[in-house]
Every structure is written in structure tokens, then in C-alpha cells.
Amino acid sequence: MKQPINNFIFLVFLIGLLSTFQSCKKDTLFSSSNITFSADTLVFDTVFKTEKALKDLFKGSGVQQVKIYNPDGNPLNLDEIELMGGSDSPFRLNLDGISGKSFTNKKIAGNDSLFMFIDIQLNVLNNPSQNPIIRDSIRVKTNGKNQYLQLLAWGQDAYFHHKEIIKNSTEWKNDKPHVIIGYAIVDTSAVLDVQQGCKIHLYNNSLLYVRRGALNMNGTLNNKIIVQGTRSEASYQKIAGQYYGIYFHEALPSKFNYAHIKNGTSAIQIYSRNENSNLATLTIENTVIENNARYGVFCFANPIVILNNTLLFKNQLYSFFVLQGADFSINHSNILGYGPSSKDNTAFALKNYYTNPDDQLTYISPLNGTIKNTIIYGYKPSEYVIDTLQNDGIKNNIKLQNCHIKFENPFTNTAVSFNTDPNFININQNNFRFNSSSPLNNKGITSSNKADIDGKKRSITSPDIGVYEID
User: Could you report the per-residue pLDDT of 216-237, keeping only the tens digit for each?
Assistant: First the structure.
């Protein structure tokens, strides 16, 4: 009798052992890794452009798909998949032929992938322009870690430039907005011409990058080009840092005329000059550059820059900054501080050197510039700073003519006035015009600039200093 009992006990033990083994085997077979997506952002060209669309449930530009990859050799369990917008989200998911807003326990075999399909349906508002960009994200939880896929749709008819490289010369038309997500690159030898009246919107951390090509913004007095972020709500109109900016790298000669660039991180950065051209890297005329989290115009490593009839203000590091030299000409411009923080740097700063932290070498290039009929002013005791290093063969030549400057230690220059309040009409409302009692009135010198930023004719013999000519 003992033998059957012993066999029974052994059998129970063996079943328990096998059960435990199977349980352990199941746990160890599933991957402890995380997923990857085939894209970090999906962009939908949602179009609202008919009266019917204001009444009906209007479907966007179709279904988009994304692959969810399991990079591990073992199966992977997707514990949770959900739209963060929940039941109110205009987006919909489809997994394995089933539509919904959320899913649980979806499995991907080892070294395999799962297709997820996403579409968008929107109840159009009476005024869709108040919410031009629709955002959501998909959260996927695996092994305790949340990963997100961003979803973007434009609530108006728009041109999308999503990580786009422009290799051939082209023109951006003004019939609908242009939206940059990630980047738009104007590549070597290509020329991008932007039509008058264009509206360019850049998404978070996005940039318009000119890499040995050229960018021309061809605005007019009555049809300016606007460059700003993608948020149109009133609460965002004065928030800096909504996108990265416009970056020139050894660019071909480019020109901005009648543009308004605002609320970026660095509005314009100009790196070096193109070795195949002796013309200005960038000419900026009749343009407003305001409220950027770092720089208005940043020149690095000796580019050639022209500013004419240009208003820069409330840029939080510098409105105009040269690092490691530049050739520049500035005429009838306002280079102003008046930033929101006491930590803001000066409005205008020039340095002829740069110390590279990687190689610990200091690079020096000359400062060659003419500044005339220009006001450099703000809240700080000094809004004008020059910092130079001496080096054999490197000479700096800065010429000031009929300027008005805020400077703590005025120097002798009969053509420059210092520190007298310019009597701007309303700094808080960004109105930098002035009345006849201002020290800017009739104190300029004759130049080729015949009209102010508003198109008003300047005095031939004694124009006003700055961008505005008053009666």
C-alpha cells in the first residue's frame, strides 16, 4: 500500500512542479523591453473650408497608420493603449479591426510589429480659427512604462511641412497658412520665396533652417508676412519660446522685407557666410522682431548682415547680438530692450571672439559695422555693450552716426546723444512712436532710406532717428 501512496504524492508534487515551471516559463518568455513607434508625431491635414462643414460632422484627410515595434525576441504585452483626450477626443483608434478610444492587453510577437490606424472626425465650431491646431496623444503602457505618440491636426486648410527638405527652388503661396512641424530645410543652392501675406506657423521646438540655400520673405507694406507659433488663443499672444526660430547656415544672399516675427526662442540666427558670395548673408528691412525668449537677431562667426527700418524689442537675452565678429550695417532701426524680466540682458551687444568649450580655443573675427539713425534704448543703465579681444591682424571698426543710445558711461561723439528719455508714446503697448519734443525728432542724417516702416516719407535734410518719421 505504501507504493501507490508514494506514487500519488510524487505525482501531485510533479504536477505542482510542472505548474510552477509553466508559470515561471510564461513570465520569462514575455519581454521586459519597451516598444518603439515608426513615427514620433502623426499629422492630419484636416480641412474646414465650406459652409456645409460648419453644420455637418466633417471627416479629415483620411486614416493614418503607425507601426508599434517589439524590438525584443520575446513576445511583448501592451498593457494599456489609450487616447489621452478620452471620450472627447476627435481622434479614433483601430486595432485588429476594432475601433475605440482605449484597449488593454494587446500582444506583439517577438521581433514583430502591430499596425495601429488613427483617423479624426471633428464637430466644427462656428469659428474654427480660434482653435487652428488640434492636439492629442496616444499613451501605450508596457512593463510599467508609458510612451506617447503625438497627434496633430490643423483646423483650417493649410500647407504642412513636416520634417521637409526643400532641394529645389520653390515658392510658398499665401492662399493658406504654412505649418512647420519639426523642421523645414532649405537645402544647398535651393531658394525659397515666401509670397506677401503668408502666415507661417511653427510648432513646438520647430525651425525653418536655411542650409547653404536662400530664403526671401517678400512682404509688402499692406500685406506683411507673419511668423509665429501655432497657438492662436489670446493667452498665447505674449508668450515667448513657442518655437525655435529661423536659422541660416552659410546661406546664400537672403532678404526679409515687411515681415513680423514673434514669440519664438531665437527669431533669427545667422551662422557664418557663404564662401561663394560677397553679398549680405541676410538683409532685413521694414520688419518687426519681438518677444523672443532669447535673441531677436543673433550673428555668429562673421556673417554679413544689413538692418534697415527694423524694429526689435522685448527679446529677453539680446535684441541684436554678435558673437565672434560680423560685418553689419544698421540704419533707421530701433534696437530696444524693455523685456519683462530684470534678468534680461542688454538690447545690443557685440563680441569679436568666441571660446569653444570643446577644444578650449578662442576664435576671433573682426567687427566691422556702421550704425546710423538708430536708437538703442531700454530700462537698463546700459543697453549698448562691446566686448573685444586684441589679436594681430584683427581690427575692429565700429562707426556711429546720429544715433541715440542708453549707455552708463557716455563717450565723446558729437553725432551721438545719450540717455535722454526718447518719450515713446506707450512702451507697454509697444508704441514706439514719439512726439516733436523727443530727442529723436529731426536728429538723423540723410541716407538712402526715403520712407519709414509705415511708408511715410522721411525728411530729406533732417530725418528722425529710428524706424518712425513723425510729422
Answer: 999 999 999 999 998 877 788 8
Asked if residue 322 and residue 185 are part of one domain, the reply reads: no
The verdict on 311 and 447 lying in the same domain is yes
Query: Structure pTM?
Result: 0.79
Domain holding 112, by residue range, is 36-154
Collect all residues with Cβ–Cβ distance below 8 Å to 282 and sequence separation of at least 6. 248, 251, 253, 254, 255, 256, 268, 270, 303, 304, 305, 306
Which one of 154, 188, 218 terminates a domain?
154
Task: In whole angstroms, give the CA distance from residue 133 to residue 46.
Answer: 9
Output the pLDDT for position 123: 52
Number of structural domains in the chain: 3
- How many alpha carbons lie under 13 Å from residue 347 in its C-beta half-sphere? 27
Measure the CA–CA gap between 52 and 54, rounded to whole angstroms.
Answer: 5
How confident is the model over 381-393, as pLDDT tens digits?
Answer: 999 999 999 887 8
Q: Are residues 407 and 391 in the same domain?
A: yes
From 293, 313, 339, the end of a domain falls on 293
CA 293, CA 188: separation in Å to the nearest integer? 29
**Does the pLDDT of residue 61 top 60, yes or no?**
no
Residues 377 and 390 in one domain: yes
The CB-based long-range contact list for 393-396 (8 Å cut-off, 24+ gap) reads 394/352, 394/364, 394/365, 394/366, 395/366, 396/352, 396/366, 396/367, 396/368
- If asked whether residues 109 and 172 sit together in one domain, one would say no
